[in-house]
Amino acid sequence: MHASLALLLELGIVLVALSMLGSVASRLSVPAIPLYLLAGLALGDGGVAAVPAASGFVQTVASIGVVLLLLTLGLEFSTGELMVSARRHVPSAVADLVLNAAPGAVAGLLLELDGVGVLALAGATWVSSSGIVSRLLIDLRQLGNRETPAVLSVLVIEDFAMAVYLPLLAVLASGGTWWQALIGIAVAVTAVAAAFAGSRRWGRHVNRWLAHPEPEQLMLRVLGATLMVAALAEMLNVSAAIGALLIGLTLTGEGATRARAVLAPLRDLFAASFFLSIGLAVRPSVLLDALPAAAALAAAGIVTNILTGWYAAGRDGSHTRGRLRAGAALIARGEFSVVVVSVVAATEPALAGPVVAYVLVLAVTGPLLARYLPGIAGRRRAVAPVGPPSPGRAGSAERAASL
Amino acid sequence: MALPDGAEERSALHMSEVMLPGVGLRYEFTSHDGDHLGFVARRDGYVEVVRYDASDPDECEPLFRLTTAEAEAVAEIFGAPRIAERFADLSRAVPGLDAGQVQIPAGCRYAGRRLGETRARTRTGASIVAIVRGDAVLVSPGPGDVIEAGDVLVVVGTEAGIAGVRRIVET
Fold it and tell me: Against a cut of 0.80, is the pTM above it?
């Protein structure tokens, strides 16, 4: 009884603290992920206030957090969007992979990590945070810009590429050989292909069963199905995260929209636990030691992302400022880099410090650069008022929409 | 973008649709007055209306943002079905399939020639499913049908295919 009292109290305090951090984050227009990671650091070993009862719980539900995070990411994108994006932006995605994985791979080699460590670090620097970036484009009101489809295309292809990358990493991290990794990838690719074919052919039936009209039924069915598929994926050593991502990608249309709505609060709670647990696993002193290396990696990442955006937006005919905006938008790193660390947590514990520091730097500087860098590069033209002016409207609408 | 001569109000709109993966859809067209406008229908229900500067078409100037209820109210005022939903239904039914309209500009080298001579389908994969000439509509035109300057071709295909057809008749 006492344990549960401590758990309830500590958990309550942690959640209230997170809510305060969240409101600070939105006041400063930075994403909440880095603050959650910092909160984890503060609560963990060597932090300012240990919460032993709550941290046990947080670490238990963190795995559900990864599953929900990837499920809702999968729900954001559809196979149709991937096909349209791929038709135009496969070269952009290749440039994205080569340019952005390179700093991580080089750093991995310099840090004398083994093959899995190098692969994990390369992945952590490769993948942008779709969550942070799409939120950013909405907040900066850049959805109308010509370069925006290029940015979003790179993100959607990255997310689908995770279906190959994560199983590869998971199998190798669990001590598998290269051919076992290939089997893992084959399983995941087959599953993606089946999801593709399935969502086109039988998608209606799957959707009809999952997308029950009752919100409660919908939530239980989607969550239950996802956890089962995630467990199956984990059993095959291809990471629970990938199973969840696949379910998310398969669900489309109206069902996906409603599932997003009912799962959002759950995702917010469990994903916050996941970020906390990652922070808990890192000692603040380790983070401080890793900070210079992470800052150098982040600086390299800023350059390579700008090059990626420059190239991708250029393919759509954008000019200098648009190309710069696209590059700046892609800088933010977040959930995916942290998921990569969690996949290899058992075998590569040394990676957590540098990657958490790296995410902390880029999750904060990415949005700031996206906001100010294109403005520094050239002044925005004066906006001529159209028709009867409506003072103050634009500003208030902007706040209302940013969650 | 200046309107080509002879393009009257009745000529159909060049509404182009752009997919914004994970966020929604964007529709763009140039109004009769020459304003290049964009409408972003977000998945979360918001509709954003933006205008592009003639000097820098890359960057939009956000004009206003509407909630789902507001957008529906505006659509009802003008009595139009919600374009967003119409297009969304089409692309949901067949992912990757777009419909677009391409106007034959004055001075187009294919004006007065047969549709087959454009080799549009061979070159772009997109199909021309109708020719709109003034008030008349020629549905399912054959390769022997003649196209004229000012005609509007209704094209079905991929986004790139539709853009390809536009390039063919505009260059």
Answer: no
